[in-house]
Every structure is written in C-alpha cells, then in structure tokens.
Amino acid sequence: MAFADEITVAQLEADPYPIYARLRRESPVAWVPAANVWFVTRWQDVEFVSKNSELFAAEVPTSPVERSMGKPTILTCDGPVHDELRRGFDQKYRPRAVAEYIDDLARPIVAEYLERIALLGEIDLMAHYFEPTSSLCLARSLGFDSVDVKTLQRWFHGMAIGAANYENDPEKQAISDAASAEVEAAIIPIFERLEKHPDDSAMSRMLHDGMEPACTRARAFLLPSIKVALLGGMQEPGHGAGTVLVGLLTNPEQMKALRSDLDRLLPKAVDEGLRWVAPIGTQMRRATRDVELGGVTIPAGAPVPQSSPPHAATRRAT
Ligand code: HEM
To answer: For the chain, what are the domain ranges?
Structure first.
C-alpha cells in the first residue's frame, strides 16, 4: 500500500509535518483517499498551482469552505467576482490602510488583556491572550462592536472545523453550521443599520463602494466572504503570534537578539514563525483539465489542496 493511502485525518490533525515531509520525499503530488483530495507538498509545485488559475481554479465544488460558509466566498472564486469582493476588503485591509488605524485599534485591547493575564497566575497564552486580542481586533475592525470574546472564539473554532472538514463528517459539519447560523443572525441587523448609516468599518466598506449609501452590494453576495474573514482574520494572527512567542521562548539566544534590535528583527521573527508552523495548513484549488505535476497526472476536476511546507522550506508557501 502506498504511504498516501495510509494517511488518516486524525494523523493530519495531530501533526501534519512528518507526513508532509515523507510525501515530499516519496510522492510529492499524491492522492490522499482519507481527505478526498490530491496533496501538493513541494514549494515549487505549490507556487505553480497558486500562480496558474487557468489550470488550477479557486472554485472547488466539494470545497469544505463553500459547504460551510456559502457561495461565492472570496477564497473560492477567480476573475471579476473575486475582483469585486476584493474591492470591498481592500479599502480596510490593505497594509497601508491597516497602518493608519492598527495602533489605535490594537493597543487598548492588548493593554487590557496584558493587565488581565497579569492577575491570572498560570494561564494558557493562546486561549487567554492571543485568541482574544486577535479576535477582538478583527471583530471591531469588521464592525462587530458588541460581540464578546467567548462568542467570537466559539464562532471561529466552529467555522474552522467546517472549513477543514474535507472528509465531510456530519458531526463536524453540524458544529460548523451552528456557528455559521449564529454569525449570520448577528450580521443581518448590522447590515440593516449600515445600509442606512455607513460608517468606517470593513463591513460598511464592503456594503458600499465608498462611504455613501448610493452603491450597495447585496448582503447574500458578501456574507460568505465575511465569514471567511471572521475565521481567517480572527484565528490566523493570534495563532501565528503564539507560534512566534513559542519559538522565541524556546530559543533564548534569539529572544535576546530580538530584544536588542526589535525594529529590524521582529518582522523577521514573525515571518519565520509563520513559516515554521503555518496558521493555515492548506489552500485548495481545482484542476481545470488533466495536469501533469510532480510526475503524476491530476485529473480534470480534482480538488487539490497545497500544504504549506514548514520545517523543510526556506520560504512561506502562501
Ligand atoms: C498571520 C495572519 C494570516 C495568515 C497566515 C493568513 C493566511 C492566508 C492564506 C494562506 C490565504 C490564501 C488562501 C488561498 O489562496 O487559498 C489567505 C487569504 C485571505 N485572508 Fe488571510 N491570513 C492572515 C490574516 C488575515 C486577516 C487579519 C484577514 C482579515 C480580513 C484575512 C483575510 C483573508 C482574506 C479575505 C483572504 C482571501 C484573499 C483573496 O482570495 O483575495 N487574513 N490568508
């Protein structure tokens, strides 16, 4: 039996990196039956798939992201629909736009949580600090002004289970669907308010082309992508920051160097942390025709997640 045939979802969830490493050595492009998809695990192949949307489209009919969040999502479309969704996001989330508001947004949230954890004694930094601060920053920038941290954490943990439910497990899907329904119920009244009274939030900018209510995008068009942003935006920065801290705490020499040259070394530490343990493990594409890659032929229509290859690569895969 080939190695790829033996891989289980439980193994992938527990620690994918030794599996990716063996796949890269033995079968870098491989059909993994347990996950119902082709895995692409080498840097150069991942880059090829990512950059050739005519051969590998973002829209995947069996995508767990679409099954869990609806259609179209910004993650699962190309062309004019993708461009239109991006226009809404870009106004608030381009690096230059973020630089203008991130300090005012993040510093008070971070200060509050630093005070809180100082009082707690022994804590789980991910659950008590990184996830809350990351979730609150994203939620407040999107326009969820009054949703509490526990609800935000329940939302993104629930939706994350659905987005990674490649094997279409009904129990996992039920958890995700419940979270998704809660998110929708919370968004609708916000949409109703913003349609009449636009503000500076990302959701308002997605609804309206500018700050005027003159050109309003449809709620159903935006909802799935807002769920994507809720999940990705709340989870990834927090988990990535936690990884960076683990790397530094377990490498005291690097921590010392970082402290002595924070401005230069902090961006490098963040890049390295995201490469080391990718907060998003895979990104999904669909082969639009039979494509030969890594010595095998991926058949037309096949779903192809490319794994981010930390531990072996020197650059990030995404
Ligand atoms: C360390 C932080 C983050 C990491 C590692 C990360 C990772 C990723 C990856 C790998 C993709 C590409 C997936 C693909 O091509 O299939 C992606 C797309 C996306 N992410 Fe993030 N993300 C992060 C932060 C955020 C934040 C803060 C937001 C807030 C809105 C966000 C929203 C999105 C959106 C909307 C897309 C789709 C972009 C498009 O298709 O044009 N992400 N992210």
So the answer is: 77-250
Pick 77-250's CATH classification: 3.40.830.10, 3.40.50.720, 1.10.630.10, 3.90.230.10. Answer: 1.10.630.10
Buried b / exposed e across 170-194, counting CB within 10 Å, b at 16+?
A: eebbebbbebbebbbebbeebbeeb
Give the position, in ligand 1's atom list, of the atom nearest the Cα of 240.
1
Angstrom distance (rounded) from CA 66 to CA 224: 8
Which ranges of the chain have pLDDT less than 70?
A: 210-215, 306-318
Q: Is the CB of 36 under 6 A from ligand 1?
A: no
What predicted TM-score, i.e. pTM, was given to this entire model?
0.85
Say if residues 159 and 183 touch (Cβ distance below 8 Å): yes
Torsion of CA 178, 145, 164, 166, to 10 degrees: 50
Nearest CA to ligand 1 atom 24: 233
Dist. CA 85–CA 140, nearest whole Å: 20
Give residue 308's pLDDT: 54
Q: Which atom of ligand 1 is nearest to the CA of 241?
A: 1
